[in-house]
Amino acid sequence: MTAVTIIVRAAKGPSGRDVMEELLVSPEADAWRLLRSPGLVLGTAADDIITVDEARDVHVLRRGGNVAVQLFFTSDGPDVKNAALAAFADIDGRLDGESNRQVVFTIPFAVGFEAIEKRLAIVM
After folding, report:
1. Strand 58-62 with 49-52, pairing
2. What gap in Å lies between CA 59 and CA 41, rounded to an integer?
3. Counting Cβ atoms within 10 Å, is residue 115 exposed (0-12), middle (13-18) or buried (19+)?
4. Is the pLDDT reported for residue 1 higher than 80?
5. Does the pLDDT at position 96 exceed 90?
6. Are the C-beta atoms of residues 106 and 46 closer than 8 Å to each other?
7. How far apart are alpha carbons 96 and 75 in whole angstroms?
8. N or C: which end of the chain has fewer CB within 10 A?
9. How far apart are CA 112 and CA 24, in angstroms?
10. For 4-63, how does the pLDDT look when each residue is reduced to its tens digit (9 = 90+)?
11. CB-count exposure of residue 90 (10 Å: 0-12, 13-18, 19+)
12. In terms of Cα–Cα distance, which of 69, 49, 46 is closest to 60?
């Protein structure tokens, strides 16, 4: 599997300017497989098969069976990260990305939203 990065439009910022995100992907026929859940592109998760149009917008062709959980914070970043790592461990959650104000986890869809929400209540 070859891993490459592509740049996509995640959103429009408050100023009207595009907010771009670099995604780690692998080629999949005429599309891309997300290797990690994005931190800003909503509605996508690791293992989704996507295409990217000329405007750099992402379109999901096929779901990969995962849920992306994006946690944003203003302080206590290490505490949030450590609490989330502990809370998601028993449902096979994995840390896919982090910055000084965000952590991104990938969790199998099969565990169900109730299990995910229960753990989010502990973390937040």
Report:
1. antiparallel
2. 10
3. middle
4. no
5. yes
6. yes
7. 20
8. N
9. 26
10. 999 999 998 899 999 999 999 999 999 999 999 999 999 999 999 999 999 999 999 999
11. exposed
12. 49
